[in-house]
Amino acid sequence: MRILRDVSIKEYSNMKVGGTAKELIFIHDKNELKEIYDTRDRIYLIGNGTNTLISDGYLDISFVTLKEMKDIVIEKKEDEYALVRAYSGVDFNDFIKFMEENNLSGIENMSGIPGSFGGITNMNAGAYGTEIFDVIEEVEVFDPKEGIKILKKENMDFRYRGTEIKDNKWVVVSTLLKLTYGFDKEASQDKYNQRKTKHPLNYPNLGSTFKNPKGTFAAQLISDCGLKEFKVGDAQVSPVHPNFITNLGNAKFSDIQEILKHVKEVVNEKTGIMLETEIIIVE
């Protein structure tokens, strides 16, 4: 493992917001996790920081990352499918490239989603009607109480943007996926292109801020309530995609918190729907 102390944690957040962390620990072997969890009180697992809003000021937290565990292994090849293991630190779009290089198929609709494989699995991320659990066979996790264990998909609780892994604060070590053959390059490129045109990728952001309520879309509700471009300090509801909050330069944690509060209140007042945040907030 590698340990950095008194780290400017905003450098590890896609939002570029956050204070000074007590320490940042890079895990290189899954067996190192037990020592960390046995010797630290406040631990927060961070991947690519694409879904995490971190408070300003000093954070008495041991941030732990598996982002340097980046192996992708084809464990089995059959005539109809291949079993592929992706370790937690694999950048999701590097995995899409791996699929293309090996003519594998199944999650092309998720092309362009930012984040590491651990985070994608932890929250059951998805896009355009496809979720990562559509192709998952099993997940290897570290449970602070029981150690390393394998969870079979058929025995797991997973749902829209949630899993029992997330609920129990287990650590995703690796994910085994069952993929078919015949990479759909056209579908993959289409999703990349849509993200480039519909998402504000030119500013730091955390992706979708709110979960989509059943039967509607958070972005539509926010837009209908006249909240596009609502701004506090250097934080702004994106005019490109109103379910994104962007950092225009020097946004503070408090700026973003104020936007979250205001958007929830206005949408609830005008539609009767209380939006639920999809991002994770660390204080």
TrEMBL record:
InterPro entries referenced in this protein's UniProt entry, alphabetically: FAD-bd_PCMH, FAD-bd_PCMH-like_sf, FAD-bd_PCMH_sub1, FAD-bd_PCMH_sub2, MurB, MurB_C, MurB_C_sf, Oxid_FAD_bind_N
Active-site feature positions: 161, 208 (proton donor), 278
GO cellular component, one term: cytosol
GO molecular function, one term: FAD binding
Matching Pfam families: FAD_binding_4 (PF01565), MurB_C (PF02873)
Entry annotated with the keyword NADP: yes
Keywords of this entry: Cell cycle, Cell division, Cell shape, Cell wall biogenesis/degradation, Cytoplasm, FAD, Flavoprotein, NADP, Oxidoreductase, Peptidoglycan synthesis
Every FAD-binding PCMH-type domain range: 17-182
Main subcellular localisation: cytoplasm
Location(s) in or outside the cell: Cytoplasm
Cofactor (UniProt): FAD
Catalytic reaction list: UDP-N-acetyl-alpha-D-muramate + NADP(+) = UDP-N-acetyl-3-O-(1-carboxyvinyl)-alpha-D-glucosamine + NADPH + H(+)
Keyword Cell wall biogenesis/degradation belongs to the record: yes
EC numbers for this chain: 1.3.1.98
Pathway given in the UniProt record: Cell wall biogenesis; peptidoglycan biosynthesis
Matching PROSITE patterns: FAD_PCMH (PS51387)
GO biological process: cell division; cell wall organization; peptidoglycan biosynthetic process; regulation of cell shape
Family statement drawn from the similarity comment of this UniProt entry: Belongs to the MurB family.
Main function: Cell wall formation.
UniProt name for this protein: UDP-N-acetylenolpyruvoylglucosamine reductase
Organism: Streptobacillus felis
